[in-house]
Specification:
The chain is 47% helix and 15% strand. The protein is α/β, with parallel strands linked by helices. 41% of the residues are buried. Bound molecules: adenosine monophosphate and zinc ion (ZN). It is found in: Cytoplasm.
């Protein structure tokens, strides 16, 4: 039985979808004004693991991940680069798609862009006003009236007074309460705008996600997620807006991931301390980054250092060593390994424990290798199958071991051929010299009955 930790109730709960066998899941997407960093990768790899595991457990998942393609930061960036907002967003959406594909993230079933849902946002704001939960402020912008919504604070588990003292909220004359947040912002000169009953302007960030999620998943749906910085105010505000408009519960389960940090600081674009996904993938296999991000539980903070990437590569190398030289086979069925893997993942997607089960399985393969080749191959197929649920172990082991080599493979193959020739001529000194030359380039060679193979060892 799958249990998920729900931020709303602060408990692990048995997961029960609204419709048997079907799940609607919305994850807040990227604001596209720069390249995605590995903090983003953490949140979206976690979402990808949740998605893959739900599908593995037989659910039909409708996965929605939006794109925020209009916002103050995007407008600022466009002004800096003297480009049109659309040119900026187009460039970074393309880069995001490239990075996410390289990371092996499953495509969302819907990828709504905020600018394509303006009419739905306007209708939603009209409903909120009609229900008495929003007002036009002194400056003409439309604000949500937090004090009119009795449940405000239900997700972050604070009341309005606590939230007010803890948050950096601007006090202005135009709002009734400092926590009131904007639903519709009137356009300033030279800003993109859409017509609305309140004048030309653009939507606030929070209303975007309420409108897009309800349009694509219905007013009441199963899972809503994102990084934990979104709990307050973004998700708190989404709940307030949506429930004020529909008088129905919005999302049942709220999943929030821990932050990726650099030396105890949050990695973020605004702090300027970020490492992009593409920088990491220039030097490392995508699975190495995925592994690093899954090796801690999704809710705990994760401190990144370049060394953690090397450790992840070594961990993956243990799996690929177990998979090496195994013939194709049907996977071993009804094993205690599969049961333990499911038990771990059913417990709020506990990937560190699930990976430790896979290490035991890899160990078992090595034990069986000499004794029972068929059983080793069947367990190898199981290891791949369960690894694939987490989006890893998708490579050919030989390709994995050769990845990252800084020397051209034809040069390596030529040196190996020269060494084999020297050995053939019993010129052991020359053969040894070549082996050392390769070792100096971090290339380790292995001789077996079927010939010589090589690996790149960092
Ligand atoms: P943004 O593009 O800043 O709106 O962020 C998109 C998503 O990435 C949100 O769910 C954030 O919570 C998440 N995110 C941003 N920075 C980090 C980080 N350092 N670690 C984990 N998730 C992050
Ligand atoms: Zn959102």
């Amino acid at each position: 039985m799958l249990k998920i930790y729900n931020t709303l109730t602060r408990q692990k709960e048995k997961f029960k979808p609204l419709q048997p066998g079907k799940v609607g899941m919305y994850v807040c997407g990227v604001t596209v004004y720069d390249y995605c960093h590995i903090g983003h990768a953490r949140t979206y790899v976690s979402a990808d693991v949740v998605l893959r595991y739900l599908r593995f457990r037989g659910y039909e998942v409708n996965y929605v991940r939006n794109i925020t393609d209009i916002d103050d930061k995007i407008i600022k960036r466009a002004n800096e680069t003297k480009e049109d907002v659309n040119t900026v967003t187009k460039r970074f959406i393309q880069a995001m798609h490239e990075d996410f594909a390289a990371l092996g993230l499953a495509q969302p079933d819907h990828e709504p862009r905020a600018t394509k849902y303006i009419p739905q946002m306007i209708t939603l704001i009209e409903k909120i006003i009609a229900n008495g939960h929003a007002y036009v402020g002194a400056n003409g912008d439309v604000y949500f009236d937090v004090r009119s919504f009795a449940d405000y604070g239900c997700l972050s588990h604070h009341n309005i007074e606590q939230l007010e003292s803890g948050a950096r909220v601007e006090v202005t004359e135009v709002k009734r309460d400092p926590l009131d947040f904007v639903l519709w912002k009137l356009a300033k000169p030279n800003e993109p705008f859409w017509d609305s009953p309140w004048g030309p302007g653009r939507p606030g960030w929070h209303i975007e996600c309420s409108a897009m999620s309800m349009e694509l998943l219905g007013e009441h749906f199963d899972i809503h997620g994102g990084g934990r910085d979104l709990i307050f105010p973004h998700h708190e505000n989404e709940i307030a807006q949506s429930q004020a408009a529909t008088h129905k519960k919005f999302a049942n389960v709220w999943i929030h991931g821990g932050f990726l940090q650099i030396e105890k600081e949050k990695m973020s674009k605004s702090l300027g301390n970020f490492v992009t996904i593409r920088e990491v993938l220039r030097e490392h296999e995508p699975e190495v980054l995925r592994y690093l991000l899954m090796a801690s539980h999704y809710r705990s903070p994760l401190v990144y250092t370049p060394d953690t990437l090397n450790q992840s590569r070594q961990a993956l190398a243990r799996f690929y060593t177990a998979l090496r030289f195994l013939p194709n086979a049907a996977r071993a069925a009804n094993t205690s390994f599969e049961a333990a893997f499911i038990e771990a993942m059913d417990d709020d997607f506990n990937t560190p424990v699930a990976l430790s089960v896979l290490f035991e399985l890899a160990h078992e393969i090595q034990r069986l290798r000499e004794k029972d080749k068929d059983s080793a191959a069947a367990h190898g197929a199981l290891l791949r199958y369960l690894g694939n649920v987490l989006g890893v172990l998708t490579s050919d082991p030989e390709v994995f071991f050769k990845s990252g080599a800084t020397v051209d493979s034809t040069k390596i193959e030529a040196l190996i051929a020269a060494r084999n020739q020297a050995r053939h001529e019993k010129n052991w000194a020359e053969a040894d010299r070549i082996r050392k030359e390769l070792a100096a380039m971090s290339i380790v060679i292995e001789d077996s009955a079927s010939g010589t193979t090589w690996k790149y060892v960092k």
